[in-house]
Amino acid sequence: MSDILEFADQFFNAVSNGDIDAVAGFYRDDVTVWHNFDNLDQSREDNLATLAGISGRYDAFGYEDIRHTALEDGFLRQHVIKATVRKKTVNVPAVLRVYVESGKIHRIEEYFDRGQLSAVFS
Asked: Which domain of life is it from (predicted)?
């Protein structure tokens, strides 16, 4: 189980560092990323584009209070998104259920209040 926690750390380090090529290496070609706020599945390409755009949308963006729980088919990730735009900062709790098979992520289910995150733009 410690291997999956190391995998989780490496994956989210790539996300945090904006290393989209590294993130892509963690994904299966058919990965889907679902978000509770729109109830839609994002494709691999759409999710990578979303992640690539983070640095252009926020003055600062990161994760705090990080917790991982190993599961038989992946891991659970809990964190607080800390995002800043024009000196306005929000802290948004989030939970991600990540499914891993044969060393690749094939599905992510992400839960957070997008309205809280969007508040930095108002």
From this structure: Bacteria
Cα–Cα distance for residue pair 37/30, rounded to 1 Å: 22
Global pTM reads: 0.92
Burial class (CB in 10 A: 0-12, 13-18, 19+), 75: buried
Which residues of 23-73 form beta strands (DSSP E)? 27-35, 40-42, 60-71
Contact 61, 88 (CB under 8 A): no
CATH of domain 2-121: 3.10.450.50
DSSP class of 43 = P
- What token pair was written down for 71? 């599961």
Q: Which helix (H) or strand (E) holds 92?
A: strand 88-101
Task: Report the C-alpha gap between 75 and 90 in whole angstroms.
Answer: 26
Residue 80 near residue 64, CB atoms below 8 Å = yes
- Domain extents in the chain: 2-121
**Angle 52-57-63 from CA coordinates, rounded to 5°:** 75
